[in-house]
Amino acid sequence: MRINLLPHREMRREHRRKEFLRSVVFTVLAGAALVVLVAVGIEARISAQRDRNAFIERENRELDGQIREIAQLRQEIESLRARQLAVENLQRERALPVLLLDDLVRYTPEGVYFRQLRQTERRIFLVGVAESNERISYVLGALARQAPHLERPELVEIKSVSLARQPKDKPGRRVFEFSVHSTLKSAGPEEPQTVGAPGPRAPAAQGAAR
Description:
It is a single chain. The chain is an alpha+beta fold. It has 2 domains: 1-94; 95-184, Alpha-Beta Plaits. It is 54% helix and 20% strand. The chain has helices at residues 6-94, 96-106, 133-145; strands spanning 112-120, 123-130, 150-162, 174-184. Strands 1-2-4-3 form a 4-stranded antiparallel β-sheet, with helices on one face. A hairpin with a 2-residue loop joins strand 1 and strand 2. The longest helix is centred in the first third of the chain and has 89 residues, at 6-94.
């Protein structure tokens, strides 16, 4: 008996081909699904990173605004401090002329008086009259060592002059006219601004600064 196996082989070949095609299609679909899933995951991560970047940018803008506000506040604080310091210095400097006059009264002995007192910025110019050179020396030494608001007093000129004659039939009395340059000290922040405090007394009766 002769059996023809060709149809059976054709059927098996066809079946294998269909199985292969199904496997290929399934693999392609699985790969496409995997690609889609991966793309979706990557897109989700990119979106999340974009959100984080946007949040960081917003926070950075807010921080920049706060930094600008802090800088402006610091400038205002520095300006207020400068104004406060200027006001404090002005208040301290305002009392210096009174304290200077008080120093002159306390450290000027009898027989010496001042005719002129002039201030240019912090330079003090004094013109006075004394009965003797010794009294002028005492005044300079007292102002240099003890006057708290004057520093570096320097004798510029000394000359003998005659006072006006009273009455006219008598000659005028000879005295010594002198001029002194000195520097007015700056009032320190903790320097007591008191006038009339007890200080060293001149050997003679206290004179007056005129």
